[in-house]
Amino acid sequence: MLKLLQSQNPLLLLLLATVLEVSGDAIVRIALHEHAGAARIALWLAGAVLLAGYGTLLNLAPFEFGSVVGLYIATLFVVWQIINAAIFRTPPNFAIVVGGTLVVLGGLIITFWKPA
Question: Could you give the C-alpha distances from 103 to 16, 48, 73, 110, in angstroms and in order?
Answer without folding.
Answer: 19, 27, 8, 10
